[in-house]
């Protein structure tokens, strides 16, 4: 039996673990080989000036980890096939180098996006970007603390995949008051993207057709096409979607779902007039087509109360209403919700169990408490006022550039978090110029379903996320493009 000189490191760990670790490193370094005997517990205890039981505990640990075996009347030995050798051997015999495994990834509907995230740019004009730095974390803190101090233990367990009951009841009150939505079942989700995915899995099958705005929200399209659906573009004009074109589409093709952003059309920000909404509803009812109404930033409407959603007047129960806390809080909270007809809710809740047992009910519990207390509403009023000021600042800046002779035009959006700016030409180049100058924005081409419809003349300028001084600096750099 070889003498084993062990060096003990990591004094913060219990002695037996230090010894076990030292023996593992002796084995790894080849100081003792496979099948070779190890010193007895008595010997090692004397050498290390420690208790024999400590050495026995170290050997037990090594046996449990698969490095050592104990053989009757022979004592402890290194195992025949030591973990480090067998993986080295496997690599040698398969002749494979590190990192050469090739994954067989399914061809998917989405493109991998490796570009730099919007928030890493000095000037972030992303359209749906809230001002996270202005979020009142201190106001939410006592409610989070209360949720942890007085946790509702039953709610934290498995079961009830619909969401936290108290949060849902607050949402129901809020939706009734703010959006006149009653008579629907609320399901909470980890952001509205999860809702879009759930809906696509439950309502669509390969070959189903989904009518979408021709300039629209790509993450929703990705969810639909991942289920095998085909997207059909609805033409748009200055008032939103072209109902006559939608009518033709539903007459000629078998459409299963219509996905719309009627309040602040994404990305053009146009508000669909009330009578047009009625026509869409009649059409959907006549042809028995479900509507997904994505009301993602309804809180931010400035000139009047936001127009009532389609879901507020839905006698047939065909409208699936979606909204999110990503804009009124921050995208990282991952809280969204659907309000759906009672007949659809069980399928969605059951399907969600396939991907997730439960949403984050602790966060929901805290937000529910915040909503109940009323300071949530104050936060909404404050943020709406602030975003309205930022919209007005952007408008006045753009008007000044117009006065200086810059050929740009826009319609003042009644709400939302962005302006759809007509720069008349070279929008894509302007976008490239912006990115190269540390400014994030997206030009028209990024929003088209059919690239051939790209007029290459619009950019989307988000105004909510940046303070006015910063926004103005960003605009000055951006518009220097036209002086080149
Ligand atoms: C049209 C639209 N729907 C939904 C969302 C919000 O998605 P989520 O709740 O998954 O963060 C956004 C955010 O940009 C959006 O623009």
Automatic annotation (TrEMBL):
<dbReference type="InterPro" id="IPR000524">
    <property type="entry name" value="Tscrpt_reg_HTH_GntR"/>
</dbReference>
<dbReference type="GO" id="GO:0003700">
    <property type="term" value="F:DNA-binding transcription factor activity"/>
</dbReference>
<keyword id="KW-0663">Pyridoxal phosphate</keyword>
<keyword id="KW-0804">Transcription</keyword>
<protein>
    <submittedName>
        <fullName>Transcriptional regulator, GntR family with aminotransferase domain</fullName>
    </submittedName>
</protein>
<comment type="similarity">
    <text>In the C-terminal section; belongs to the class-I pyridoxal-phosphate-dependent aminotransferase family.</text>
</comment>
<dbReference type="InterPro" id="IPR036388">
    <property type="entry name" value="WH-like_DNA-bd_sf"/>
</dbReference>
<keyword id="KW-0032">Aminotransferase</keyword>
<keyword id="KW-0808">Transferase</keyword>
<dbReference type="GO" id="GO:0008483">
    <property type="term" value="F:transaminase activity"/>
</dbReference>
<keyword id="KW-0238">DNA-binding</keyword>
<keyword id="KW-0805">Transcription regulation</keyword>
<dbReference type="InterPro" id="IPR051446">
    <property type="entry name" value="HTH_trans_reg/aminotransferase"/>
</dbReference>
<dbReference type="InterPro" id="IPR015421">
    <property type="entry name" value="PyrdxlP-dep_Trfase_major"/>
</dbReference>
<dbReference type="GO" id="GO:0030170">
    <property type="term" value="F:pyridoxal phosphate binding"/>
</dbReference>
<dbReference type="GO" id="GO:0003677">
    <property type="term" value="F:DNA binding"/>
</dbReference>
<dbReference type="InterPro" id="IPR036390">
    <property type="entry name" value="WH_DNA-bd_sf"/>
</dbReference>
<feature type="domain" description="HTH gntR-type">
    <location>
        <begin position="13"/>
        <end position="81"/>
    </location>
</feature>
<dbReference type="InterPro" id="IPR015424">
    <property type="entry name" value="PyrdxlP-dep_Trfase"/>
</dbReference>
<dbReference type="InterPro" id="IPR004839">
    <property type="entry name" value="Aminotransferase_I/II_large"/>
</dbReference>
<dbReference type="Pfam" id="PF00392">
    <property type="entry name" value="GntR"/>
</dbReference>
<dbReference type="Pfam" id="PF00155">
    <property type="entry name" value="Aminotran_1_2"/>
</dbReference>
């Amino acid at each position: 039996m070889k003498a084993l000189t062990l060096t003990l490191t990591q004094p913060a760990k219990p002695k037996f673990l230090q010894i076990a670790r030292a023996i593992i490193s002796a084995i790894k370094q080849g100081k003792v080989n496979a099948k070779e005997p190890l010193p007895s517990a008595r010997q090692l205890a004397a050498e290390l000036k420690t208790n024999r039981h400590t050495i026995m505990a170290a050997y037990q640990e090594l046996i449990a980890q698969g490095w050592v075996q104990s053989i009757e009347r022979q004592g402890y030995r290194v195992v025949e096939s030591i973990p480090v050798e067998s993986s080295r051997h496997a690599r040698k015999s398969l002749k494979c180098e590190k990192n050469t495994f090739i994954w067989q990834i399914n061809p998917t509907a989405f493109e991998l996006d490796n570009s730099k995230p919007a928030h890493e740019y000095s000037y972030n004009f992303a359209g749906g970007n809230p001002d996270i730095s202005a979020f009142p974390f201190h106001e939410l803190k006592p409610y989070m603390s209360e949720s942890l101090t007085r946790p509702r233990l039953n709610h934290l367990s498995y079961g009830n995949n619909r969401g936290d009951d108290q949060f849902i009841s607050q949402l129901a009150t809020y939706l009734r008051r703010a959006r006149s939505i009653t008579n629907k079942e609320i399901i909470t989700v980890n952001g509205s993207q999860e809702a879009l995915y759930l809906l696509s899995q439950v309502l669509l099958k390969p070959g189903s057709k989904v009518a979408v705005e021709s300039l629209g929200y790509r993450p929703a399209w990705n969810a639909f096409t991942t289920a095998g659906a085909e997207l059909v573009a609805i033409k748009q004009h200055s008032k939103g979607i072209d109902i006559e074109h939608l009518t033709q589409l539903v007459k000629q093709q078998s459409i299963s779902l219509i996905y719309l952003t009627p309040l602040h059309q994404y990305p053009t920000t146009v508000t669909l007039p009330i009578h047009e909404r009625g026509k869409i509803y009649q059409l959907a009812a006549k042809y028995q087509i479900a509507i997904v109404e994505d009301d993602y930033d309804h809180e931010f409407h400035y000139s009047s109360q936001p127009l009532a959603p389609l879901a507020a007047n839905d006698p047939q129960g065909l409208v699936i209403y979606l909204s999110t806390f990503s804009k009124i809080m921050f995208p990282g909270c991952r809280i969204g919700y659907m309000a759906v007809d009672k007949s659809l809710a069980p399928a969605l809740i059951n399907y969600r169990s396939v991907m997730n047992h439960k949403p984050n009910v602790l966060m929901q519990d805290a937000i529910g408490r915040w909503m109940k207390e009323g300071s949530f509403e104050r936060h909404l009023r404050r943020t709406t006022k602030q975003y309205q000021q930022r919209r007005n600042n952007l408008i006045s800046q753009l008007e000044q550039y117009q006065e200086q002779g810059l050929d740009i035009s826009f319609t003042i959006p009644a709400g939302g978090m962005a302006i759809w700016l007509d720069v008349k030409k070279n929008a894509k180049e302007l976008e490239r110029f912006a990115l190269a100058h540390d400014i994030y924005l997206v030009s028209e081409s990024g929003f088209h379903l059919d690239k051939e419809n790209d007029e290459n003349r619009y950019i989307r300028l988000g105004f909510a996320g940046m303070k006015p001084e910063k926004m103005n600096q960003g605009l000055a750099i951006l518009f220097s493009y036209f002086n080149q």
